[in-house]
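User: Here's a chain of 95 residues. Predict its fold as tokens.
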Amino acid sequence: MQDFFTWLGSTLGDIIRFVVDLLIHFFRNLGDAAQGFLHGLSASLGISPSLISLVVLILGLWLLYLGLRALLRRSLIATVIWAVLGVTVLSWLIN
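Assistant: Prediction complete.
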């Protein structure tokens, strides 16, 4: 009877170890993929891969999105304002 529980505990331990190793490799590869994506994005835009640059990039894209939403609402003045702000922020970044 003791051999059965020894085998059961060993098998359960092996399964847990396999799952933990699988998750470690998955998240390590996910982190490497995200880092590669961000470095590729910043290299193609000609910006530094810092957190500030990425936040400014997201802010500029958000301003352009607001301009697009204003255009879809047929608000021409708001479209021009948001688009000019978005292009200005992105030009500061990509310059």
